[in-house]
Amino acid sequence: MLGCECFCWHDKHSDYDEFTPLPQPQPFSLPSPIPDWPPGQGFATGKINLGELEVVKITKFEGVWSCDSLHGKAKGPTFYKPVGIPDGFFCLGYYCQPNDQPLRGYVLVAREREGSTPEVYRDYDSDSDFPALKKPVNYSLIWSSELDRNGCGFFWLPNAPMGYKAMGILVTDTPEEPDDDEVRCVREDLTETCEIKDTIHVAGAHPFQVWNTRPCKRGMCCKGVSVGTFFCSTYFVSENEELEIACLKNLDPTLHAMPDLSQIHALINHYGATVFFHPDEDCLPSSVQWFFKNGALLYEDGELKGKSIDYRGSNLPSGGTNDGAFWIDLPGDNNGRDNVKKGNLESAELYVHVKPAVGGTFTDIVMWIFCPFNGPANLKIGLMNIQMNKLGQHVSDWEHFTLRISNFTGELWQVYFSQHSGGEWVDAFDLEYIEGNKPIVYSSRHGHASFPHPGTYLQGSVKLGIGIRNDAARSKYFVNSSTRYKIIAAEYLGDGVVTEPCWLNYMREWGPTIVYDSRSELDRIINMLPFFVRFSVENIFDLFPTELYGEEGPTGPKEKDNWEGDERC
Fold first, then answer.
1. What is the span of the domain harbouring residue 299?
2. 519 and 548, same structural domain?
3. Among 401, 342, 396, which residue's Cα sits nearest to residue 370?
4. What angle do CA 372, 434, 556 make, to 5 degrees?
5. Measured between alpha carbons, how far is 470 from 460 in angstroms, rounded to an integer?
6. Which of 114, 291, 306, 523 lies at a C-alpha separation of 20 to 30 Å from 95?
7. InterPro entries in the record, alphabetically (predicted)?
């Protein structure tokens, strides 16, 4: 076993005076109580049917072990055992999280459903004669700390019977192997592969690491269900490597835990974010109808003159692929172009796509916002800030943020903030709220990227201080998505429940392809720099994001990867 000189393990049950108790994370609650949602099928009932298994989310824990740096350089994690497991349900693994954030996590516990129980859905029948859950054969010790006292932590991997998979790791404070009744393994056909996600802890110079996990396949049609457990190892694990533990699989085709239409409206009314635009924003959002009504034109390859677009988008080509045959542009006259570029905040609304996430155990409420124009970039080079004339401009800008809701309770769990070609998930405890449980989204000046807090965010080389500035701040310009929204798609509800607008199925570009004269603008920048810090044009090209050099017209929401897939991080 490996030594543990680099950090201290703190036994929750130890009587040793020399162990200074670590401050324990406190549970997090949303600012306001969660309301009673409209009645429906299985949303927010506390239990979810996955086919042969029924699962419950446990959020109450008993700390088993904590670790922290001896020198206070880094916060370590605490390992938790789930408590308050309902009768008949079984633990699948333990939970772990960093000590420097509020206690807010979960693990799923499971029971084999009984087909004769009236409230159990019978939409999945297995051909297997083997039970869905089985005790492990025994355990393998993955790692332990070594101190000459009882203050040790022991990490155990359940060894599953043949044809079964372990779901998580157990942690004990004694060297005795855990009881085989402590946890259950799941039949292999009821599981999917999972991968490591965020690193929770690295034990200094010793090869012991801890990660949280997620399903390998993610998206609205994927069935993988995160159990909420962690994985640890004494060897290197790559991001896409299949682990020795698995996640669950939702085999209930009805997705009965997803909200119905009335519940979707209630969720948006309760959690809809307020989107603030920068005080100096001059490229504000509008509704798509306003954009069409105010002179947007449809161009076809080979035709010199654009055609007016019906305010519903009914004369836009529908379906197909983005083959470059059509694109949308601003009005032909200068006054009309200038007017449309400014947008129209009074007409602006959020366009909502609702879809299953994490195997139907969460609901993603994706909120798209449309801006007729994306303004020029503001570059930062060290202490210098340079407003570009044209670089970064393009017609039409589709940006979004996503509310991720737990289908067990209807609780807001995370918000995804889209930021140009990527983005970030932010936990509910790290959000700003404006009214009750409504979070705030800050939209950056000109580029309209979404951020959870005001400030200046650099897109480029943060280390060198060179890149595009994304300035976000609160102002009098805002849109309240809890009231100004339109649901445009929710495929899982079935045909005819939500009518998709005509423009949603326009798969071509919402703006013309623009190629910038990057050389002249970048030469202007270089000439402004002191001689000893000048870069060659080639080096600056390498440092700046690719969208500075040219813009293909942006595509609409349905052409984005996240329409069916998971968000990009």
1. 261-559
2. yes
3. 396
4. 25
5. 11
6. 114
7. Vps62
Judge if 304 and 220 occupy the same domain: no
CA geometry: angle 515, 517, 523, nearest 5 deg: 150
My answer on whether 336 and 448 are in the same domain is yes
Neighbours of 442 (CB within 10 A): 26
212 inside domain? yes
Strands in 375-477 per DSSP E: 378-381, 384-387, 394-406, 412-419, 422-427, 433-435, 438-443, 450-451, 455-461, 466-472
- pLDDT at position 262 is 98
Q: Are residues 188 and 289 in the same domain?
A: no
Q: What is the pTM of this model?
A: 0.91
Distance CA 301, CA 293 (A): 23
Give residue 249's pLDDT: 98
Q: Residue 262 CB: number of other CB atoms within 10 A?
A: 12
Query: 79 in a domain, yes or no?
Result: yes
One-character DSSP codes across 313-344:
-TTS--BS---SSEEEE--SSHHHHHHHHH--
Total domains in the chain come to: 2
Is 164:183 a contact under the CB 8 Å cutoff?
A: no
Evaluate whether residue 407 is within a structural domain.
yes
Which pLDDT does position 8 carry in this prediction? Answer: 37
**Cα–Cα distance for residue pair 279/281, rounded to 1 Å:** 6
Same domain, 438 and 416: yes
Q: What parts of the chain have a pLDDT lower than 70?
A: 1-23, 68-74, 115-127, 146-151, 204-206, 515-523, 525-526, 528-552
Two tokens at 349? Answer: 């609304």
Cβ atoms of 138 and 157 within 8 Å: the answer is no
Mark whether 285 and 168 lie in a shared domain. Answer: no
- What per-residue confidence (pLDDT) applies to 126? 60
